[in-house]
Amino acid sequence: MLARLTGALIRGASVGLTLMAPYFFVPSDNQHPVEMVALLAFLAAILVLTEYFSSNPSLIEFRDAPPLNRIRFCTFFLIISLISIATLNLFAPTNLTLLIASIAAILGQLTSVDFTPVHLVSKLVSDSAPEAVHQLVRGCAAVAYILSLMAIALFVAVIRLSNWPARSGPFNVWVNLPFFDPALGADVVTRLQRDAGVNIALGFVLPFVLPLLVYLLSPFIQFDFVRHPQSMIWCITLWAFIPANLAMRGVAMMRVAELIHRKRRHQSEQAVAQVDQDPRELWQVV
After folding, report:
1. CA distance 252 to 206
2. What is the DSSP secondary structure assignment for residue 222, as one 8-state letter?
3. Cis peptide before 229 (omega within 30 of 0)
4. Which helix (H) or strand (E) holds 160?
5. Ramachandran region of residue 93, left (φ > 0), alpha (ψ -120 to 50) or beta?
6. In angstroms, how far is the first alpha carbon of the chain from the final one?
7. Residue 233 sits in the same domain as residue 255
8. How far apart are CA 244 and CA 88, in angstroms?
9. Per the structure, how many domains does the chain have?
10. Per-range mean pLDDT, top range of 19-33, 131-145, 269-283
11. Is residue 60 included in any domain, yes or no?
């Protein structure tokens, strides 16, 4: 019980502090609702604390199937921290901020090819904005997008190299997929494969679609995400992390469907082998 509570406290505090990272690194003006963000960070920390301390699932998926959620959190932490440090270089440059900003600028130049996600995000910045802002947005988008792709590749490698999630013991669908009802609708494997395909497709399409959608709606909705540094950090972080999260969820569901299908086939082969050894068992099988 004590170990469970300690782990839940560490997870909750880590989530709350990570959500406040843009305000720890970058100075904020009076127009940005710091108190509202602090309240949301506190509520998120309480949610994670209660979720991991409780024995019954509620919201967080793959809670007992590490290291998926650890990869998710580390990806989110790296994205929001690195682009916050790069943004700080505009306000209070140091050797560290200059290094991160320089690497981000190089990555931005390498990945900002026509019709790439990084290029589409950089085009959302107004032409009247200073060149330093254009370079910052392009570099931050490149860092965030590359980290999201690396997280997906890392999770795929974990699945192939460590036999995830079987290495952690029996996989409980109810605990790890609280929103998935195995008794509802079509076959479980078919539904898992269908949902996995949708999530993977969204994960790779959304980085292209979201900037285009914002650009098409710009005549009707005023959206200047570089007006406040924290807004820019959050927009880029969510733009990169949400699709990566969906893609990893899809890969995980595809893996679960594969394990269920493999277990069914193994049980069927065992039943056939038992009948072959004792023909009298045929009547029981029929």
Report:
1. 19
2. -
3. no
4. helix 131-162
5. beta
6. 48
7. yes
8. 25
9. 2
10. 131-145
11. no
Q: At what angle do helices 68-88 and 2-19 cross, to 10 degrees?
A: 30
What is the amino acid identity at position 73? F
CA distance 205 to 274: 48
CA angle 232, 236, 238 (to 5 degrees): 120
C-beta separation of 53 from 4 below 8 A: yes
Cα–Cα dist 164/162, whole Å:
5
Residue 125 lies in a domain: yes
37 and 77 part of one domain: no
Q: How far is CA 154 from CA 133, 158, 197, 224, 231, in A?
A: 31, 6, 19, 34, 29
The answer to whether residues 146 and 264 belong to one domain is yes
Residues 127, 158 share a domain = yes
How far apart are the C-alpha atoms of 239 and 258, rounded to whole Å?
A: 30
Which of 18, 36, 55 is the last residue in one of the domains? 55
- Token pair, residue 136, equals 């910052």
Q: Is the separation of the CB atoms in 83 and 241 below 8 Å?
A: no
Q: pLDDT-based confidence at 79, cuts 50/70/90?
A: very high
The model's pTM is: 0.88
**Single-letter amino acid code for the residue at 189:** V
Structure tokens at 202: 């969204």
Helix, strand or coil, per DSSP, at residue 115: coil
Q: 253-264: per-residue pLDDT in tens?
A: 999 999 888 888
Calpha distance 182→58 (Å, rounded): 16
**Are 205 and 280 within one domain?**
yes
CA–CA distance, 148 with 7 (Å, rounded to integer): 26
Write the pLDDT tens digit of every residue in 129-161. 888 889 999 999 999 999 999 999 999 999 989
C-alpha span between 152 and 172 (Å, rounded): 23
Q: By residue range, what is the domain housing residue 140?
A: 65-285
The residue whose two tokens read 């190089």 is 106
